Amino acid sequence: MSNLRVCVFCGSSRQCDPVYLDTAERLGRELAKNGVTIVYGGGAVGSMGRLAEGALAEGGEVIGVIPAFMNELEWGHKGITELRVVRDMSERKRVMIEGADAVVALPGGSGTFDELLEAITLKRLALYLGPIVLLDTRSYFKALLLALEKCVSERFMDPRHQSMWTVAKEPEDVLPAIQSAPPWETESLSFAAI
User: Fold this and answer.
1) From 21, 45, 91, 188, which residue has the greatest number of CB atoms within 10 Å?
2) Residue 83 lies in a domain
């Protein structure tokens, strides 16, 4: 698994249930122990901060990508391997997913949903081909998964699009989910529009 580069989307809330923060830290440790480079939103608090701390505790490489205005507010993590400052939120998403071998989404707020849905859209358009794994702590993504199923049943998406993402229950399930994700090819563009 070494040399793998995984983009992780997660939140910065300090008020969420501690189980989400602990899960983020466990994921950071698990990825780092397996030699995975983490690319994330660069934050120092919430799930973002705990993800980074977990990885750093295991000697992992952690690259943060943060918009300039957030960096000016001193929201960036000072102890990570590298903190890249970009112009805005759109560039942040693009830089985070560029060169990523896989995407993992942890529970988070509107920003996390924005990032995750953009990754799914890019995969649907064959602009990103890697695995997308939702770490479904406390069944957090249940409503989103039902909404995506509704997209398929109402024929806004093809049934084959449901293989674009995989669900994992525990941090230790994430790497196996990445490894076993069904391949996604550029030919998928042929059914991007239905």
Assistant:
1) 21
2) yes
Is 13 part of any domain? yes
Nearest to residue 125, comparing CAs of 161, 156, 99, 154?
161
Residue with token string 């070494």: 2
Residue 5 Rama label (left phi>0; alpha psi -120 to 50; beta): beta
Task: Enter the tokens of residue 106.
Answer: 């942890």
Domain hosting 26: range is: 5-183+185-189
Q: Is 42 exposed, middle or buried (0-12, 13-18, 19+ CB in 10 A)?
A: buried
31: domain CATH number?
3.40.50.450
Residue 12 domain-assigned? yes
- Give the DSSP letter string of 126-177: TS--S-EEEE-GGGTTHHHHHHHHHHHHTTSS-GGGGGG-EEESSGGGHHHH
Element spanning 89, H or E:
helix 89-97
In-domain check, residue 29: yes
Render pLDDT for 113-167 as a digit per residue (tens, 0 to 9).
999 999 999 999 999 999 999 999 999 999 999 999 999 999 999 999 999 999 9
Closest CA to 51 of 65, 30, 71: 30
